[in-house]
C-alpha cells in the first residue's frame, strides 16, 4: 500500500501541478496516454483465458486467474495517471482552442479516427467501444475542467463511468479472443473430426454447443448464406457462436456458448467500481495518516473537508459493512453445497455489488439533499447586505427548515435595522441643519463680520 501511495504521488508530481499547462503537442499526448493504457489492459486480458473452469465471459468472477484479479487492482494506478494526464493535456488544448464547440468537435473527430481503425487489420482490437469510450472520456474531462468541482459526487461519477467503459471494452475484447479459439476449434473438427484444445479451455464450462455436423435448416436465420469452406462468427440474442461450412458435405460445424447478455459486463463493472473506490479512499486515508497536507494533494479528486463528504463517506461505510456481512452469511450458507450453489453464489455476489452501486448513488443524493440548503444559506450569507436580500424557501419544518426560517427572520430584522438606521440618519441630518439655522438666526451679524 505504501508503494502504491508513493507511486501515485510520484506520478502526479512528474505530470505537473494542476495549474501548470503542458506546452507540447496535446493531441499526441492524449493518444500516447490512451495507447499505453490499452497495451496494459490487453496484457491483463490474456489472463482471462486461463480461468480455472474455462472462460465464461466474466459471468463467474471467481473463475478468473489470480493474476487477473491482481491485475484489476494494479490497473487502477495507471488509470489514475491517465486521468491526470488527460487533465494536463486538455488544459493545453483548451488554451489553443478556446471555443467550446470547436473543441468538442475536435475531440469527437479524434475519437472517430480511432473508430475508423475497426475496418483495418491493425492488431486484434475492437476499436469501436474504445473510440466511443475515448470520446466520452475526453468530453467529460473537458466539462469537468469547466466546472472545477472536486467533490465526492464527481469522484463517484468518474469511477462509475470508467468502470462501465473498462468492463465494456474488456468484454468485447475477450469475445474476440474467444472467437479466435472457436474458429480454431471448428477447423480442427472439420479437418480431423477430433478435438484437441489448449489446456486452458474446458468444454464442460466454456461452451454449451459443440456440433460436428449441423443440418442447414437448424442454422439461425440471421447467419445468412455461408459458402463452402468458409466460417462466420455470429453474436446475437445473448449468444456467441462460430459456424463453419464443411468441405466434405457433412453440414456445418458449430461452436458456441451463452454470453448472458449484459449481465457479465455489469458484474465486471460492479467489481471494478468497488475496487476503484476502495483504492482511491485508501489513497486519501493514507495521505491523512501520513499527515500529508491537503493543499499539496496532487490529484484533484477531493475538495476541501465538508459535511457533504462526511455524510457520503459514512453512508458508503455503512453500505460496505452491511453488504459485507450479507455476502459473508451467503457464502457460509452455500459453502456446504459448492457444486450445486456455486453459480448461484457468484450471481448473488454480482447482484450485491450492483446493489452497492445503487446504494452509493442513493447516499450521494441524500447527502446533496441535506447539504444543498446549507450551501445556499452560506452563499446567501456571503452576499448579504443591508437591503435587497431574498428569502429562502424550504417545504418542510424540520431542522433545515428551522435554519432557513432563522435566516429569513434575520434578513427581515436586518432590513428593519437598515430602515431604522436610515431614519435615524435622516433625523440627525435635519437636527444638525435646524441647529445651524437657529445659530444663524441668533447671530445675524456673524456673516457680515466675516465678510469684513
Q: What would you say this structure looks like, in words?
A:
By secondary structure, the chain is mainly alpha-helical. Among the domains are: 177-258, no CATH class; 399-451. The chain is 66% helix and 6% strand. The protein is built from twelve helices and four strands. The chain has helices at residues 2-14, 26-45, 66-96, 100-116, 127-147, 152-192, 203-206, 263-289, 307-334, 338-382, 399-442, 446-451; strands at residues 209-214, 231-236, 239-245, 252-258. Strands 1-4-3-2 form a four-stranded antiparallel beta sheet, with helices on one face. α9 runs antiparallel to α10 (338-382). It is elongated and about 135 Å long. The termini are far apart. 23% of the residues are buried.
Number of strands: 4
- For the termini, the CA-CA separation is 94 Å
Physical arrangement of strands within the biggest beta sheet: 1-4-3-2
The SSE order reads HHHHHHHEEEEHHHHH
Low-confidence stretches: 197-205
Q: Strand content of the residues, in percent?
A: 5-15%
Total count of helical runs of at least 4 residues: 12
Q: Specify Rg, calculated over alpha carbons.
A: 33 Å
Kindly state the mean pLDDT as a whole number? 69
Content-based structural category: mainly alpha
Helix content: 55-70%
Keywords:
single chain; mainly alpha
Q: How is this fold's topology laid out?
A:
Blueprint (H helix, E strand, L loop, with lengths): L1 H13 L11 H20 L20 H31 L3 H17 L10 H21 L4 H41 L10 H4 L2 E6 L16 E6 L2 E7 L6 E7 L4 H27 L17 H28 L3 H45 L16 H44 L3 H6 L1
Antiparallel strand pairs: 1-4, 2-3, 3-4
Helix pairs in contact: 1-3, 2-3, 3-5, 4-5, 5-6, 6-8, 6-10, 8-10, 9-10
